[in-house]
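Good morning,

Attaching, inline, the backbone tokens for the sequence recovery test we're adding to the shared suite. The designed sequence is right after.
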């Protein structure tokens, strides 16, 4: 198994400074390079689960909400009928396993 210094050196040679940042993130996450490379897949799963949870909420049309996930941070945007629907959407997103934080500044109500 390659050592951390070998990974860092390889990253510098292959990716330049972007590789250094990737290697540092891998080292600090404790899960190694695989954890960093798996993050987009994890984010996609979280996005799908948030959309499913939103679809199960009465009074929320999922077509009205955009959902994006980056490193476990979910960003919601769109226009809902009222403030109660906005709060319900945020709570639904927060209830999904793996969600670290929900940003909903772009989620507005018609009221």
């Amino acid at each position: 198994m390659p050592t951390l210094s070998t990974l860092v050196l390889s990253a510098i040679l292959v990716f330049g400074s972007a590789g250094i940042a990737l290697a540092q993130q891998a080292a600090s996450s404790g899960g190694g390079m695989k954890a960093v490379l798996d993050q987009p897949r994890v984010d996609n799963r979280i996005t799908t689960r948030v959309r499913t949870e939103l679809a199960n909420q009465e009074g929320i049309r999922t077509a009205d909400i955009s959902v994006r996930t980056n490193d476990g941070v979910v960003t919601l945007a769109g226009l809902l009928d009222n403030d109660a629907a906005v709060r319900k959407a945020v709570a639904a997103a927060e209830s999904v396993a793996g969600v670290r934080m929900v940003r909903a500044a772009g989620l507005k109500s018609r009221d």
